[in-house]
Amino acid sequence: MKLSEKQKKEILTVARKVIASEFKKNESLEISSSLREVISKIGGIYVTLKKNNKLRGRSGSAEQEILGKSLIEHSKKAAFEDQRFNPVQKDELDEIKIELVIISELEAVSGEDAVEKINIGKTGIILKSGAYSSVILPNEAKEKNWDKKELLEQACIKAGLLPDAWLDVTTTIYLFHGEVISEE
User: Fold this and answer.
1) DSSP-derived 3-state class of residue 33
2) What pLDDT score does 27 carry?
3) CA gyration radius, the chain
4) Model-level pTM?
5) Contacts of 102 (CB under 8 A, 6+ apart)
6) What's 52-91 look like in SS3?
7) What is the C-alpha to C-alpha distance for residues 46 and 172, in angstroms, rounded to an integer?
8) 167-181: pLDDT as tens digits
9) CA 7, 119, 52: angle at the middle one, nearest 5?
10) What are the boundaries of each domain within the chain?
């Protein structure tokens, strides 16, 4: 899904207003017809909040749902329900930068195929093995200077598995592409 610059600004504004609405209950959301068309489509979304370039909250899902519903749900969860952080406070809202990743459909691949198909900075992965799973967003590998194998190893470690678990036939790997939209 390719968004115009105007649509990118609008969707970030919607995410910010959703969070701010927790402090100002009567804040209205005005959504243009072009953005309405985008957020009525199906896709996954991750909402990341950063303060001083450090993670402040994240929530999302690769589940293919109506984007508008997911945007609202995960904006609130990133700000107020991420268990790793205290809820965002009204006085810090201006210091927080929002980043969204809109996720394409998932493609199941084997470990060896994953190495061939990953495009660092553009491909994200979901790794599952039994009760263990992890998600690495497309921009994370680029930010951390990981190569393709390091990306797969880090996904395993994040899931609580051995670094080479991505080669195991019982491990499922899903690749996805994501459009990153950021206030930064």
Assistant:
1) helix
2) 65
3) 17
4) 0.85
5) 1, 3, 43, 44, 45, 67, 178, 179, 181
6) CCEEEEEEEEEEEEEHHHHHHHHHHHHHHCCCCCCCCCHH
7) 21
8) 999 999 999 998 889
9) 55
10) 5-103, 107-178
121: left (phi over 0), alpha (psi -120 to 50) or beta: left
pLDDT in tens, 105-153: 899 999 889 999 999 988 999 999 999 999 999 889 998 999 999 999 9
Q: Which amino acid is at 85?
A: F
Q: What is the mean pLDDT of residues 64-72?
A: 90
Per DSSP, the residues of 114-152 read HHHH--TTTEEEEEEETTEEEEE-HHHHHHTT--HHHHH
pLDDT score at 3: 84
C-alpha to C-alpha distance for 17 and 120, rounded to whole angstroms: 32
Residue count of the chain:
184
CATH class for the region spanning 107-178: alpha beta
Chain centroid to CA 118: 17
Between CA 84 and CA 86, with CA 85 as vertex, the angle to 5 degrees is 140
CB-count exposure of residue 43 (10 Å: 0-12, 13-18, 19+): buried
> What is the domain class of 5-103 according to CATH?
alpha beta
